[in-house]
Amino acid sequence: MPERFPPEFLRLHLRPLAEMAAEPPQVAAYRAFYGLEFPGAEARMGLFPAAGYQIVAQAWWPAEPRGTLLLQHGYYDHVGLYRHLISWALQLGFAVLACDLPGHGLSSGPRASIGDFAEYQQVLEGLLAQAATLGLPAPWHLCGQSTGGAILIDYLLHGSVRAEVAETVLLAPLVRPRAWGWSKLSYQLLRPFVSSIPRRFSANSTDPAFLDFVQRDPLQPLILPTAWVGALARWVPRIEAAPGRPRRPLIVQGQADMTVDWRHNLEVLGAKFAEPELLLLSEARHHLANESETLRRRYLDFLRERLV
């Protein structure tokens, strides 16, 4: 399957996202493989530069969009895994704009790595600029899963939030990962000797079909770079020391999440923001964007009431 849409080939043949241009045939194969074909919606894939990377972004429009959802995916993920959220947003009448982070999916960069989390902010600013260039309708709602949530937290705490931005949805947001003390110690011990360690796939969803698909996904990174852990180690104290802001994000968190230190994270977010609205799901694990249909329905109903 990878040879049907190799990232380097697609980037070479893609045009800037803002341009109307014919797409290479591999884009159709990509959309079919990941279930990103949405009847009645216009779709586009293209590039924009940010932080020294070539970022691959995708946009979808319903016939008469009444707002926009901007998606930020999680670590190891890419836009191809977010069909449930994209379909839901389109059904609500929102346009959708999303991109693969550096080192993920179809975007350029060392696999699953980053030099500094500040680079993620440059990518987010680039994505927001693309939304403006494309004329995507306000309000713009932001939604981030895990590391995508971390990027949005940083933006709300330190960025100049654009006037078009309305609600921010944080799905299992990352502040600290689970067992963070041990992870930092391991990083200090391993950094002089190795640049990465093999990735361990976890059962981060109650949906067995998703867990099986991820194992076969050709765009999944198979390593954990020590550079990414180092960037995270520098980012965590920046967020935990940040002054609060009068924003009220919507937070969805699974209580069976074994990926992030969610109790600590919720305490931090409760102190940083003005009474964030929280939905706890006792059975849900970490990958809320690909949880079971029953669990997805519960939090999507919660969000629908707040985004319409």
Describe the structure.
There is one protein chain. This protein is of the alpha/beta class. The chain is built from ten helices and ten strands. It has helices at 7-13, 25-34, 83-91, 118-134, 147-158, 180-190, 208-216, 226-240, 262-272, 293-307, and strands at residues 42-50, 53-61, 68-72, 95-99, 140-145, 165-171, 196-198, 223-225, 250-254, 277-281. The strands form two sheets. It has an eight-stranded mixed β-sheet, with helices on both faces. Strands 7-8 form a two-stranded antiparallel sheet. Strand 9, helix 9 (262-272) and strand 10 form a beta-alpha-beta unit. It is globular. The relative contact order is 0.13.
The radius of gyration computed from the alpha-carbon positions, rounded to a whole number of angstroms, is 18 Å
User: Roughly what is the average pLDDT, rounded to an integer?
Assistant: 95
What is the structural class? alpha/beta
* Strand adjacency order, main sheet: 1-2-4-3-5-6-9-10
* Element-by-element helix/strand order: HHEEEHEHEHEHEHEHEHEH
